[in-house]
Amino acid sequence: CRSYIENNTEASKWGDDALSTYAPDGLTMAQHNYIASQDFVVHGDETGLIDTAWHNVTDVPNDVWDWYNLGRRGGSLEKEIGSLETVQNAVEEGGLVNLYWIGRVNDATIRHDRDIADYLQNDAQAWMTTWGQAWSYWSSNRCYQHSNQLDQEAATFTFSSIVTEQCTSVSPNAWNVPATWRLSFENATVVDVQDVLGQSMTNLTGERQTAEGWRMDGDELLVSVKRGTVVTVILDGEDISFDVHNQTEFWNGYDAAVTIAAHDTTDLFLWSKRFDDEDQLRFTWLVSPRTVEGRLPWLPYASLVAGVVTIVAMMGILGREGIGPLAGIMHNKNHQYEEE
Predict the structure, then answer these.
(1) Cα-flanking dihedrals φ and ψ of residue 218, to 5°?
(2) Over the stretch 205-241, which tens digit does the pLDDT of each residue have?
(3) Rounded Cα–Cα distance for residues 319 and 322 (Å)
(4) Per CATH, the architecture of 144-251 is what?
(5) Which of 258, 241, 180 lies closest to 215 in space, CA to CA?
(6) Which residues contact 93 (CB under 8 A, 6 or more apart)?
(7) N or C end of the chain, less CB within 10 A?
């Protein structure tokens, strides 16, 4: 299943490998470790393990196995089940908010709550992300290095997040998502942030989708870059000093992140099509294989025909040897061929 999915679609714009999978309640830690050995690092949700991640706002993951039991926060996206107030409260609390959704049960299409979708699309002050992006960002926060150089004469500050073997070996399958760094400068103001070609990078003020770029947070600069990206901060000032504080908990300095887990996804493209107009929403598609009957209704008849053909062929072979109900017919044909 993994090979089929990865051969037909990219897991993310930030990485090709699938990182997340559905895991039912009741599996042992040994079973979860076996799933993780196949490079599925996020299991969910509500798997019943003692170790947890984001079951509430203070349930911050510390170890990789915490992600084997991802919590469900914010309720459901389903109409008549989901609550706009519950979603709003969860986002305002902060942390990773993981909504539940299923698009279809048997032949019945499940409608989503328009009010919740509108809130997430237009108003939620949160990073709109996926399980894989959230895990990869968390992973980069566990091991990071950077390089920097301040040029007083030119009033520029060059910064990059370094790719190191020590860090990549910790999580070799992590996607290279942009990590947000918090910087501050004394005796200077930030004029612009440019890439290696001297082009201005995207200003991420108000942006909620993962991207490279920058924005100001009060007097501090937030720079979001992938590992290996080199940027130059254009400054205005003299006798400048700086400080690289840390990576923020979530991308672009948000206090909350929102994921939507689409369970039992049997038709990825059909299910996602209804959200074409909600371009801010991001889903983690937990793909399930279709049943044979549902996808190939003609298969039983093909099996029947194949069975009949096989039986007739075997009877023909035996008939040539003078055995079975076709012995007389096949014997006469063989005798005729010998005379000719």
Answers:
(1) 70, -125
(2) 999 999 999 999 999 999 999 999 999 999 999 999 9
(3) 5
(4) Sandwich (2.60)
(5) 180
(6) 57, 256
(7) C
